[in-house]
Amino acid sequence: MSQVAYRRLSVEQRRRQLLEAALGLFAHRAPEDVSLDDVAASVQVSRPLVYRYFPGGKQQLYEAALRSAADQLEGCFAQPQSGPMSSRLAQALDSYLAFVDEHDAGFKALLQGGSVVETSRTSAIVDEVRRSAAEQILFHLDVPEPGLKLRMMIRTWITAVEGASLIWLDEGKQPPLSELRDWLVDQFIALLTVTAARDRQCAEVAKRCLALEGGDGPVGDLTRRVLPVVTEAAHLLWQD
């Protein structure tokens, strides 16, 4: 059966099949717990065939699978440049969190590190995903030359997304993904607004973004929820 399958697959198709099999295994098991025999068995081929496509063995296969996963994650933030920023972020997060949900163990191994197959190359792939996400957000914000505060704000939010995703996995995938997504969108809006109070460029970006938001959208909803809290805090601070 495997021989027939081999004849029918081109070199690129076979390589893609092995990568998808490896990514599926790495998704739910730590890299050090996955062997080349596991990958071969999952697609009913021999171990030597896996070596034929990945002569560097498990390390090369892992890095190739990681590169494939990174491409998928980078694609999450490549959304159409139309509509309110909150909607674009929500769409990107839906794709990103769906990947986290599907590749739970692999995602944890990817971001937490410590694997015996981790190298400077694998770390560079992870950093590339973060840089790509930041670049995509700046593209949506229409800021070709971001200043320090804006860059720091975006990188801080990306770190928060990663951290929240890992905690979500540790907490048994709770709260529901839609609630986690909305909370992370709220964090972006809040972080941008707070930074705008200290940085002129961020203030201009915030003004431009907020002008596209509707009163019944995420920004309006966040404002209605936060305003009473801020008002009460201000009253307590300045009362005699």
Protein model, in words:
The protein has a single domain, classed as Tetracycline Repressor, domain 2, CATH 1.10.357.10. The protein is elongated and about 75 Å long. It is mainly alpha-helical and 240 residues long. The chain is built from twelve helices and no strands. It has helices spanning 2-8, 11-28, 36-42, 47-53, 57-76, 85-102, 104-112, 120-141, 148-170, 177-196, 200-210, 218-238.
What's a quick, concise take on this entry?
This protein has 240 residues and is an all-alpha fold.
Form type: elongated
The CATH architecture would be: Orthogonal Bundle
Q: Give me the count of strands.
A: 0
Q: What is the arithmetic mean of pLDDT? A: 86
The overall number of domains is 1
Low-confidence blocks of residues = 1-6
Please indicate the percent range of residues in DSSP E strands (runs of 2 or more).
under 5%
List the topology elements.
Layout: H1 2-8, H2 11-28, H3 36-42, H4 47-53, H5 57-76, H6 85-102, H7 104-112, H8 120-141, H9 148-170, H10 177-196, H11 200-210, H12 218-238
Helix pairs in contact: 2-3, 2-5, 2-7, 3-4, 5-8, 6-10, 8-9, 9-10, 10-11
Observed structural traits:
single chain; 240 residues; mainly alpha; Tetracycline Repressor, domain 2; 12 helices; 76% helix; 0% strand; elongated; disordered N terminus
